Amino acid sequence: MKMSKANSSLDPITLEIIFNALRSVADETFITLMKSAYSTNIKERRDHSTAIMDKYGRLIVQADASLPVHLASMGGLMVSLLKKYKGNIFPGDIFIGNDPHVAGGTHLPDINMAMPLFFEGQLIAFMCNIAHHADVGGSVPGSMAGGMTEIFQEGIRLPVTRLFEAGELQADIMELILLNVRIPEERRGDYYAQIASCRLGTTRLSELIENYGITQLNNSFDEIIHRTKKRMKEAIIEIPDGIYEFSDIMDDDGMGTLEIPICVSIMVKNDYILFDFTGTADQVTGNINVTLNATQASVCYALKALLDPDVPNNQGVLDLPEIIVKKGSLLDAQFPAPVAARANTCQRIIDVILGALAKAKPEAAVAAANGANTTAVFSGVNPSTGVSYVYLETLGGGFGGRATKDGKDGVQVHITNTSNLPVEAIEMEYPLMVHSYKLIEDSGGAGRNRGGLGLERIIEPIKHDCTFNGAGERFENQPWGIFGGEDGKSGEFIKVDKSGKASRLNNKPIAIEVKENESIVIRTPGAGGYGPAKEREIKDISADAVNKKFSYNFLEKKYPQWKNGT
After folding, report:
1. What pLDDT score was predicted for residue 378?
2. Of 18, 64, 123, 463, which has the highest C-beta tally within 10 A?
3. What is the pLDDT of residue 337?
4. Alpha carbon 407 to chain centroid, angstroms
5. Measured between alpha carbons, how far is residue 95 from residues 48, 127, 129, 160, 164 in Å?
């Protein structure tokens, strides 16, 4: 959309005040959703996002704590919503959807909601949110395990649907949704948290319009997007013109397809940037496929992280890069492709972009992070209450070494900035015992600046048998080092039986029975190092020895300049 004359003359101080007010609305609704939710995945791990869209479906503001991957889902929902309901949207409506193939979602557990804001009879904007629900039905508890081969197995599919009509809940629709999920009361609580967030957001936006008026707010929307796009173009100009290429490999799809390539060629010319993923594998049988909007979100995140991390997330970033992806490939999967584990592939998209642009932006480049979204789902019946439970978590790992500092240990990386669930929350909410929760020694790649460490959790069901499902990546292909840095350690799933015998599980295990006095060991990948290990400062190596993140044997082997612990 071209800017109007009114936009170009908008007072910059007023614009800044309005922009920060919009951010405040998004942040307040994010906190409201978090504090109102029932499930640990939202109230503790914060696996949700909130955003303000204008009446054209353009992203204006996203809450600061939101997940970058959710950019794609909320934008996709708006495209579908406006196409389906144009001219048929009314005050008090709330729309819901999740399907990647017909509703603009990226995977089924991410439930989108959007509520229109009307002022003086005019449609002004939409208050949107998205939350990852711990279960949306399907063939396995948690709706996230490997071993699924089509979207129908992954849970209930929701097209964009009017859940509230003029303020009235369509009870039959809610009943239908809850009938198709496990733990329906928890799901109901999370849905109502999303509804409360939408309603609060529209109230706050109405207050903002009362202060500044419709025209000034619409002009601000245009200007926010315009300035962001201009700022990003100025950052692209700093990249030397040329073609930058890189490739990486996904471990497997959980259904027998191994060593799945993702390739990128990036062309930069002045303020234009093109991402060409030709050479990437075709879509696979297993559920690591990605829809095009999730690929777009991954590209935009990586570009922003490298060039200008402080630029706000809005349509100005999303519209900037040109992306070429083969239809029917891993990164533009078509119906009925399963996509539940799409975040693992999104992380690898980011890795290949960072690898490609590393030489162009060495000061901003980072070695490969844990490159995964290691998923663990435990489900069963609580022996104390007789009520079913589903414990879902995606665990962090290592973050890559950087030009000026070491990688971070045990964190969610890149496009999934959720929290790791505290032990206390697990043991209070579920009949599970956490025997170990620690960093994995020696899992970070050596380098001038070392890679971050992976995490270990050991979990045992208490007084009952349960089922474990999981999805891991970078369990075979290690997170690579950069500029001479060494690779980080891979992850793994292990089952320990009653006798203490340990057996490694598949990378994407499904329906693993875990009996009382048995346990599951989850070890997430570390991350690669930055720069040659021989250039690491002695004081930094000594600090690694003191904090016991690395063994003496590892340090003496990797850093010849550090001998005998001195």
Report:
1. 96
2. 18
3. 97
4. 19
5. 17, 11, 11, 6, 7
Nearest Cα to Cα of residue 27 among 52, 68, 63: 63
* CA distances from residue 557 to 198, 363, 407, 500, 541 in whole angstroms, order as listed: 56, 28, 20, 31, 12
Q: Considering only CA atoms, which of 442, 396, 400, 422 is closest in space to residue 549?
A: 442
Find, among 286, 283, 291, the residue nearest to 80 by Cα.
291
Going by C-alpha positions, the residue among 135, 140, 136 that lies closest to residue 511 is: 140
What are the backbone angles phi and psi of residue 244, rounded to the nearest 5°? -125, 130
- CB of 448 within 8 A of CB of 528? no
Provide the angle, in degrees to the nearest 10, between the axes of the packed helices 292-307 and 342-357: 40
Spatial contact of 488 and 444, defined as CB atoms under 8 Å apart? yes
DSSP string for residues in 141-207: TTS--S---SGGGGS----SEEEEETTEE-HHHHHHHHHTSSSHHHHHHHHHHHHHHHHHHHHHHHH
**Where do we find the tokens 């490939």?**
329
In terms of Cα–Cα distance, which of 434, 328, 312 is closest to 376? 434
CA angle 552, 555, 558 (to 5 degrees): 145
Place of tokens 């089924």: 108
Q: If DSSP codes are grouped into helix, strand and coil, which group holds residue 535?
A: helix
Residue 161 tokens read as 């649907």
| pTM of the predicted model as reported, rounded to 2 decimal places | 0.93
What distance in Å separates the CA atoms of residue 489 and residue 479, rounded to the nearest whole number? Answer: 7
* CA 448/CA 549 separation, integer angstroms: 16
The size of the chain, in residues, is: 566
Full 3-state SS string of 192-241:
HHHHHHHHHHHHHHHHHHHHHCHHHHHHHHHHHHHHHHHHHHHHHHCCCC
Cα-based distances in Å from 500 to 491, 510, 520? 20, 22, 11
Instruction: State both tokens at 190.
Output: 């999370």
Take residue 155 and report the two structure tokens written for it.
């849970």
Angle between helices 171-179 and 184-212 (to 10 degrees): 140
Q: What angle do CA 89, 93, 97 make, to 5 degrees?
A: 95
d(CA 517, CA 497): 7
Read off the tokens for 452: 């971050």
Say what the pLDDT of residue 1 is. Answer: 37
The two tokens of residue 521 are 């060991």
Name the 3-class secondary structure at 534.
Answer: helix
Evaluate whether 444 touches 451 at the Cβ level (below 8 Å). yes
